[in-house]
């Protein structure tokens, strides 16, 4: 039996990157999926490619009316809602504190925190009525480790991680599990565009090259470039019954970045440090 057989999922921001791969994997594992995004042409194309078990609805997660409509779409089309993946996101670049644009900050918070909160607000009554469900919030390693991302994005992801815990302790008695996933650098078009590439869909190879050249040598212990499927597999686990006792967890999928510096990055510094003491012997 497939791990999501009979389940219904909504995945926001699923017309590309991590969201798109998650939708594909969920359908392959037996789920019926509502694809959510702002690019209608791309969303409809994906729904057709995935077949009768997929539907697309255009929605902006900063608009509560759109959010309510996407929840209603899942119920109307498939009769229930077992999993909500809050994956929609936008980048923000980096600004020094003295130069922050508060309107841009508000926009990032609206997508990464307000959007998931609105989605949970409208999904919970459906999940409670049917006896439970799983909510997955897409966070980031930037939400727990400073210095790797911009202030707006990092603060938003930190808030989302804590919102996940707060929701988990409230909703547990309703048999609704709430977890977050914190990816490290993942080679997607959005990552490439955030780095300055013009075309998000055409910049995956650029992102892979950048991650391999910089991240793997200085920040990430494991020598692999993360791809969308790595995160989709984590979401699959949290969506299914195999994780029935997992709630309030931030599942970090970052190649070991949050554990500490790779030994290759500090080996020379450790040797230099010890050299000072060896001089006195």
Description:
This protein has a single domain (8-278), classed as NAD(P)-binding Rossmann-like Domain (Rossmann fold, 3-Layer(aba) Sandwich), CATH 3.40.50. It has a 7-stranded parallel β-sheet, with helices on both faces. The chain is globular and about 75 Å long. Helix 2 (40-50) links the parallel strand 2 and strand 3. The protein has helices spanning 17-28, 40-50, 64-78, 102-130, 151-171, 189-194, 204-218, 228-239, 263-278, and strands spanning 8-12, 32-37, 54-58, 83-86, 133-138, 176-183, 250-253. The model has no long low-confidence stretch (mean pLDDT 93). Helix 1 (17-28) crosses helix 8 and helix 4 runs parallel beside helix 5 (151-171). The chain is of the alpha/beta class.
What keyword list fits this structure?
14% strand; alpha/beta
State the gist of this model.
The protein is α/β, with parallel strands linked by helices. It has helices at 17-28, 40-50, 64-78, 102-130, 151-171, 189-194, 204-218, 228-239, 263-278; strands at 8-12, 32-37, 54-58, 83-86, 133-138, 176-183, 250-253. The termini are far apart.
């Amino acid at each position: 039996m497939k791990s999501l057989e009979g389940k219904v999922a909504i995945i926001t921001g699923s017309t590309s990157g991590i969201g798109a791969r998650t939708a594909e994997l969920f359908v392959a594992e037996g789920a019926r999926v509502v694809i959510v995004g702002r690019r209608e042409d791309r969303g409809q194309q994906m729904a057709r490619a995935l077949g009768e078990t997929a539907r697309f609805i255009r929605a902006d997660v900063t608009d509560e009316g759109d959010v309510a409509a996407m929840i209603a779409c899942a119920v109307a089309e498939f009769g229930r809602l077992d999993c909500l993946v809050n994956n929609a996101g936008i980048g923000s670049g980096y600004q020094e504190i003295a130069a922050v644009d508060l309107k841009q900050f508000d926009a990032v918070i609206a997508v990464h925190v307000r959007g998931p909160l609105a989605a949970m607000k409208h999904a919970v009554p459906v999940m409670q009525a049917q006896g439970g469900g799983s909510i997955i919030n897409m966070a980031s390693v930037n939400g727990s480790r400073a210095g790797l991302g911009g202030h707006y994005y990092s603060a938003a992801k930190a808030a989302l991680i804590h919102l996940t815990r707060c929701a988990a302790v409230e909703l547990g008695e309703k048999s609704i599990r709430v977890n977050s996933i914190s990816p490290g650098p993942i080679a997607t078009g959005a990552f490439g565009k955030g780095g300055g590439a013009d075309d998000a869909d055409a910049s995956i190879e650029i992102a892979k090259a950048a991650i391999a050249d910089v991240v793997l040598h200085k920040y990430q212990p494991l020598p692999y470039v993360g791809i969308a499927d790595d995160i989709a597999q984590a979401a699959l686990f949290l969506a299914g019954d195999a994780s029935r006792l997992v709630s309030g967890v931030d599942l970090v999928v970052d190649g070991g970045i949050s554990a500490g510096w790779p030994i290759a990055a500090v080996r020379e510094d450790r040797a230099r440090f010890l050299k000072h003491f060896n001089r006195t012997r």
